[in-house]
Amino acid sequence: MTSTSQIPTDVLKALVEPGGAQITLVLGAGCSMEEPPGLKSAKVLAKEAYSRLVEEDVLPEETLEENERWDLTKVADAVETQTDSQRALTERLPVTKFINATCNDGHRIAVALMLEGAIAHVVTLNYDKSMSHALSELGAEDKIRTVWGPENRDQIQAPCLVYLHRKADSNHEEWIITEEDLKDGWKDEWEDLAALQTLLLPICIFAGIGSPVPVLTTKIREVRDAQDDVQTLQIDPVARSEHLSKEVSFTEEAEISEDQFLQKGWSDFMNHLGERVAKSQIRETIEECDDLNRHDYEEIERGLRDRVQDILERRVGFDILRLGKIRAVWLNAKNPKYVAHSEGDNVRRFAMLMLLIDLIELKKDCIAIIEENGIVKFYRDSTHLASVQVVHGKGGDWWEDIDAQAYHNRQKTEVLSSTSVIGYGLSGEPDQIDLPPDIANPNTSDQDKDSIMDPPKLQFEEGDALYSNPDQIDRLF
Fold it and tell me: Alpha carbon 394 to chain centroid distance?
């Protein structure tokens, strides 16, 4: 993997600056050629579409020279000249694959960084909807706007996702694909405004773009001429020299210098941006733990920072997606895939749960391993002692909301040794919780209900009570 030291310092700094949102990320076809979704390059798509167009008598075979048949723009121009429409081409592209394109970790991290306020805009030149699926997967909902054309141009406000050349389920005649549209059609049109609005930020990162895109290359040159402090960075797995060896390239047209080019793959690069933000989040969590720690016992105070970091690094590491998922589970979020560190009081709530885990480690002389499903497993000398679920209700959830979910999670994740659920910020009384009925079979007998849960019944504990009186921790296991 890439060392973060290869990424310009200003980029790493901007990711965690107070206020954030100083970065625009522009995605080209290379970002969707990684597996998943593993889409084909524009050259291959052009050649395949041209072959079909000839076979189906839309174009005479001699319409384009052999080398031109690999150029999607030239194929689009030929189709429009022949039929007065570009639809015959777009309908022969893998539109369904574009619509259903799976997102990769690069897309997911881009969404996470928008949710964290580290990235302001993601502009995609691709027709595929992998970025939209990443928004859904991470539960972005109304937190990130999507702009797909002039009809909702007023939505370009950070954070937002912009489909500059339209998306696969847009009207096929509106796709930006012909030479006229790419070369001059954007001038004084919506694309002109969208490019300017999104590129007017201190840092612009271009990923997976090989061919020149006039609206981008023109605007980024204008922005740099007007503002000396604007920085550009191009990310691509192909060496800069190979880009410059082509007759025309984005690298040359955008005037990307050697120190503005990083030869790295899309997801590899994004993993390191995520790592930088995750390290910052862990540092802030540790600082919050220090501020929240109410114990004056020397045993608890000594080495608190190192212990909290050790707990997080044992399994979570600096993976921003794992951290976000664990926060989602621990904070009882509606979407269990990702919750932002920077949202509301999440730092304090997460730190409260981390302090309690640290205290259990000390009192029980064991180590805690946080699993990806949010379950905390405690070990001593490689012996598994217990699996505990922790949850913060944020003052709005009830213990009665947690009990059925806790039993369900224990069955679903096969955490059969889980013995406790520790909660903060929950209303109601944990000691009045009963085993929920078998929802799948409401006629289940009492005897059958007992057989559903062969493991010991779950023990529900209030986190604040345990933290205030550490001697009660012995009740857990």
Answer: 24
Rounded to whole angstroms, the Cα distance separating 211 from 254 reads 11
Q: Which residues pair with 25 in a beta bridge?
A: 122, 205
Partners of 147 in the beta sheet? 162
Predicted confidence at residue 416, as pLDDT, reads 47
Place of tokens 């593993």: 38
The candidate with the shortest Cα–Cα distance to 344, out of 299, 270, 395, 384, is 395
Task: Name residue 198's amino acid.
Answer: T
CB 262 within 8 A of CB 6: yes
User: What is the value of pTM for the model shown?
Assistant: 0.91
Lookup: tokens for 90: 């777009």
Q: Mind listing the pLDDT tens digit for each residue in 294-304?
A: 776 666 778 99
Instruction: Judge whether 201 and 121 are in contact, CB under 8 Å.
Output: yes
Tally the residues of the chain: 477
The single residue listed with the structure tokens 């070990």 is: 379
Encode the chain in three state secondary structure.
CCCHHHCCHHHHHHHCCCCCCCEEEEECCHHHHCCCCCCCCHHHHHHHHHHHHHHCCCCCHHHCCHHHHHCHHHHHHHHHHHHCCCHHHHCCCCHHHHHCCCCCHHHHHHHHHHHCCCCCEEEECCCCCHHHHHHHHCCCHHHCEEECCHHHHHHCCCCEEEECCCCCCCCHHHCCCCHHHHHHHCCCCHHHHHHHHHHCCCEEEEECCCCCCHHHHHHHHHHHHHCCCCEEEEECCCCHHHHHHCCCCHHHHCCCCHHHEECCCHHHHHHHHHHHHHHHHHHHHHHHHHHHCCCCCHHHHCCHHHHHHHHHHHHCCCCHHHHHHHHHHHCCCCCCCCCCCCCCCHHHHHHHHHHHHHHHHHHHCCEEEECCCCCEEEEECCEEEEEEEEEEEEEEEEHHHHHHHHHHHHHHCCCCCEEEEEEEEEECCHHHCCCCCCCCCCCCCHHHHHHHCCCCCCEEEEHHHHHHCHHHHHHCC
Tens of pLDDT along 254-290? 999 999 999 999 999 999 999 999 999 999 999 999 9
pLDDT value for 442: 47
- Exposure of 260 in the CB half-sphere (CA atoms within 13 A): 16
Q: Facing residues of 376 across strands?
A: 370, 388
User: What is the β-pairing status of strands 23-27 and 203-207?
Assistant: parallel
Is the separation of the CB atoms in 2 and 237 below 8 Å? no
